[in-house]
Design a protein that fits this description.
The complex is a heterotrimer of chains A (308), B (423) and C (285). Helix content of chain A is 76%, strand content 1%. Chain A has 308 residues and is an all-alpha fold. Chain A has one domain (2-228). In chain A, strands 1-2 form a two-stranded antiparallel sheet. The model of chain A has no long low-confidence stretch (mean pLDDT 88). Mean pLDDT of chain B is 91; it is low at 1-5, 10-14 and 16-27. Chain C has 285 residues and is an all-alpha fold. Chain C has a single domain, classed as ABC transporter involved in vitamin B12 uptake, BtuC (Orthogonal Bundle). In chain C, a hairpin with a 2-residue loop joins strand 1 (130-133) and strand 2. The model of chain C has no long low-confidence stretch (mean pLDDT 91). Classes of the chains: A mainly alpha (308), B alpha/beta (423), C mainly alpha (285). Chains B and C meet through helix 2, strand 7, helix 8, helix 9 and helix 11 of B and helix 1, helix 4, strand 2, helix 5 and helix 9 of C.
Amino acid sequence: MVLILVVLPSLAGRYSLYLVIQILILSVFSLGFNLLFGYTGLLSFGQAGFFAVGAYACAKILLAVPNLFLGLLGGVVIAAAAALLLGFLSVRHTRIYFSMLTLAFGMMIYSIAWKWRDFTGGDDGLVGIPRAPLAIPGLPALSVASMERYYYVVLVVSLLAIWLMYRLVNSPLGLALQAIRDSESRAEFAGIAVRTYRLVAFTIAGLYAGLAGALLPPLENTVTPPIAHWSTSAEPVLATLLGGIHVFGGPIVGAFLFFMIKDVIVRFTEYWLIWLGVIVVALVMGFRGGVVSMFARRAARAEAASDR
Amino acid sequence: MKRSLGIASVLFVVSLLLVVAAAVPAGAQCQLGVPAIKIGVQGAASGPHADYGRQIEMGATMAIEEINTAGGILGCRLEMKFMDDENKAATGVKNARYLVTEWGAHFMVGTDSSGVAMALGPVLAELRRIHFFTHAATHRLTEELVAGKGIQEIVRVSVPVYQDAIVAALIFKDRPEIKRWATIGADYEYGYASWSLFKDTLKKYRPDVEFVAAAWAPFLTLDFSPHVSAVMAQKPDAIFSTPWAGEAVMLLRQALIQGVFDQIQAWWQAMGGSVDVLEGIAAEVQRDRFKGKLWATARYIHNWPDTPENKAFIERFRKRWARFPNYSAETTYSALFIMKAAVEKSRSVETPKVIEALKGMQIRNPGGLRVFRAEDHQFVYNVPAGRVMVDPNFPIPVLGDLKVFAAKDYYRYPPFTPVAVTK
Amino acid sequence: MDTIAFQGLIGLSLAMYLWLISAGLTIIFGVLRIVNFAHGSLFMMGAYLAFTFYGQLGLPFWLAILLSLLGVGLLGLVMERFFLRRIYSIDEAYQLLLTFGFILILDDAVKIIWGGVFKIPPIPAFLDGAWRAFGRPFPVYNAFVIAVGLLVAVLLWALFEKSWWGRIVRATASDREMANAIGVNVPRVFSGVFMFGSMLAALGGAMGTPVRVASPGIGAAMIIQAFIITVIGGLGNLKGAFVSSLMVGILSAYGTLFFPVFELFFIFVIMVVVLLVRPQGLFAR
């Protein structure tokens, strides 16, 4: 799989490459979201806020200092800081109150993006963001202006992020989060500082959202307020739901499916939302484990059969 | 004798058919070396402003049908693909990338929102494709991105905010009794820039006017009652209003029932000449509820110019779609004929050659004579403004009592000075 | 002074739309413990149906409103009976997601049925015109909206506090199992409550069609406002929803008058502060 991704630029057209970049970005975004939802049991409807913080921060940095490394780093750090701050307040609640609180925080960030014209450019957003060279201190600067080069940047960064997340969910921290999800009181009884762990999960989720957001402006050359809107928060939710919440790779598969559905349906009909809605309803009613679990279950059954 | 005449005529017709049949394959031979000229079309086809995208689609479809029926461009057939940009910059950019790099568009046309247009601009330079903008109105698209940053791929066929603001100032400078102005504005750049340009221009002619109140309404405002009552508290003589589409209709209804038209001298509804707005307020206009005080303009209006071309265009459009063309339909329709003229002149679909061919272009469209301005790639043409009224020749209201200004009197000219866009 | 009073009166009429949509959301949450994300879409459906019955078919305004309530009530019944009922037992996140799916479906469905152009029927003659209030013309229509909103408030109070039906519903809300044990048909109560809440949303939508428009996307705009109000008033608290509707409606009317810049931001700040400091709502006992 990774090999295919590495040689993709020589196989696929420019648009496919662009689409894969979008899928990778949504994968990172959704993985962070699922740490909070699938692993910790908190449904956030405000992740777009941190996505936007990452995107705007990266854009502002690139407009001032044309160095992609600084842009990405700045986007991640600032988004994580925002997540730490808002997370400190948000994890005081769980369930629906948590969802409402994150929704409100996300929309606060949206209204700032919309109204603080001097800084964010208001509804026109920030335009003309350069795909600046990647200059990591100590290494020679690398031009990433072409789509192929930028694709490799996104690929490396997201594979790194995926690998780190994989390590994380299988670490003691990840296990503690799942224990909290399954039973808060039992986790507390076992000596887990529930709120602190939730805050850590929230911050990491915000960091991943910020990283995903920061990867966007060099691709699109522009950032506008709708990326902070709650309907953007719904994208990682849908992707995760499509792929499956209880499997590590679910959000990645889901991100792929989300773009395939959107990109395929939209070619046949402009009413693609209704189909997405039907798929969501069908998934919730019948396949709550998502696509990955469906196959995982079938594989497990096959394995069990062969064991016999 | 009679019989032989009959045979002769049959022979004549048959031979004519043979000639036509022989000519068609020859004519269908595309002289540009491409299977078809592909046109990517974009507009908002979802959300509250969905009708504007639909009108873009209707205008483009009709132009392409007509061009293809007449033999295409240099024998090349036209193909189009319409995509919904959801009025979102990210979707517009994604669509443009898809249309050019995957679907193979040679040209693009459309785009409603200024935000989408501003995001598309720099991407067009990367994609090396011309996009004919046919609705997005921000002056910054042509002033900053073309004249300032030199992005050659941007071409605008529709008139920018000069129409919404400066025309109003030129009309109302001659109404000495109107001294106190207030605005109910769209709470985004379009609203701020229009109000700013209006104030600046009017002040030049009329140092005595005052701007007494402003209420701002964001996208998706469902109730304008508080905006109306807030500005009416300052007892203005006239109101300058920029919400558009369904929001304009709601605003006018809610102003009517608050008795606003008994208290003011004039109401300027910037894009009130749009077909969807006129349809929405038709019953009130019929009963003269606005008392002749409602003024408006648009980027094209269906009852002007009074030319055979325009009448024929409207007739064909109504026959094809059972509706009147909105301005985004006319501008998109015309953009495709502008593209046709430029391709025929350059005998090429290559971006730099077509841009070169646009220079100095003057072309007659249903909306009148359009002249290309090389400095900012803006097509300059006249659209009058007028009072909203009933015309027995039209089933929907029209703009009457028309004030026509020469475009040179109200378009801004390079070098451009930035417009203040604060409230 | 008159300016302030007049603006307050306008704010009161704004508040009534907010009240009708958040009343339904509150009742449904109070009894079923479900946050219906698609509640705004039901508001939108109410507006479209009222347009069809009144604007297109030419039925009397009152009858058109009544029919659109029934239509949306039926839609709500289908949503509850065939979808939500099957997933009550699982994580509430899925209920939120399911109703989110309904938003996507309904938003596109209205475009397919009614087209992309907004719809607005004429104002009924008996609601046209203005009365004088504080020296200025106050629209009869806004007065009508205020009257309907207050009437609904009184009726809901009577229904829940005084009627047999209200007692059953309150019993079910406070303890499902106990209600079941004393012979209440809980699934039926759930269906009824969901239908009733849907009809309240539809009333908000239908009532406004001649002065507001029916257009795709108004549901998504309304649902966020309804969330804000139900959170400030306390989830499931009907009195709280009424008071906070008044508060938000009137404050936003004054916001337009006095400080129009950051109004959206401040409303979310209020929502956050309430959630953090008094998650049970500002007006909980």
